[in-house]
Write a structure and sequence with these properties.
Largest sheet: 2 strands, antiparallel
Shape: elongated
Order of helices and strands: HHEEH
Structural class: mainly alpha
Strand order of the largest sheet: 1-2
Radius of gyration: 39 Å
Number of helices: 3
């Protein structure tokens, strides 16, 4: 009976020591799924998303790959939305500036209208 209690205490002590990290480190975990089918070196194109086929597992899509693809697409869409908003803002500023320039040119044209000459005019608009 004493031997069983001592063996139980030894096992319990070993479990506590391992749980506290004194038993060494575990091996580095490598992913057991294929890498994302999307390119890493450039933005994702629409046709790549259209032809995207996610790898399947026993109960459906592989969650790690599907989550990675969804995060990547969300980041790409956010970047494009920011770029579109910036470009739209720039276009609106240019339109506003163009309208100001056109209004200024119209005012200067109105001010530069020559006075009509006094005297008689001929059939082709020349002075007689």
């Amino acid at each position: 009976m004493v031997v069983v209690v001592l063996a139980g205490l030894a096992v319990l002590g070993a479990v506590v020591a391992l749980a506290m990290g004194r038993g060494g480190e575990l091996a580095a975990v490598r992913p057991d799924h294929p890498p994302s089918p999307l390119p890493d070196d450039r933005p994702v194109m629409g046709m790549e998303v259209a032809y995207l086929r996610l790898p399947h597992s026993l109960i459906g899509y592989q969650t790690d790959v599907a989550d990675e693809v969804v995060r990547r697409l969300a980041a790409e869409l956010s970047q494009r939305d920011l770029r579109i908003a910036d470009l739209e803002h720039r276009v609106n500023e240019l339109h506003h500036h163009l309208r100001e320039l056109e209004a200024g040119e119209q005012e200067s044209r109105d001010l530069d209208v020559p006075e009509p000459e006094t005297g008689e005019t001929g059939p082709v608009g020349g002075v007689l």
